Amino acid sequence: MNGVDRTGALPPGVRVEVEHRGPGPPDGEIAVVRLLARLPASWRYAHRVAPARVELWIEGPDATPGRVRDAVAAALDDPALAAWHGPASDGSPGAGGPGPEG
Hints:
Alpha-Beta Plaits
C-alpha cells in the first residue's frame, strides 16, 4: 500500500488530513514527502495530494489512531512544515479511525 491512491476507493488504515493554513503558496507534493520522511519506516501508506491538502491512510505495526495522530502531530513540528496543520494530540479533527476495511 505505499504510494499514491488513484483508485478513488478509500484505502484501509488510519486516515489523517493535513491542511495548509499559512502564508505563501501551498505545495502539497513537497509537504507529503517531508511528512512521510518523519513517520516510522515500518508503516505503510497511501496518499492523495491537492495543493493545500494532504490525505494519508496509514497502516502497519502499532499504527493505532492515537499513535498515528501523535506521530503526524510531531512530524508537523518540523519548521519546514510550519504552515501545515493536522491532527492535534488532544483528539481534535484531522485524524479518523480505521478505513472501511481496517
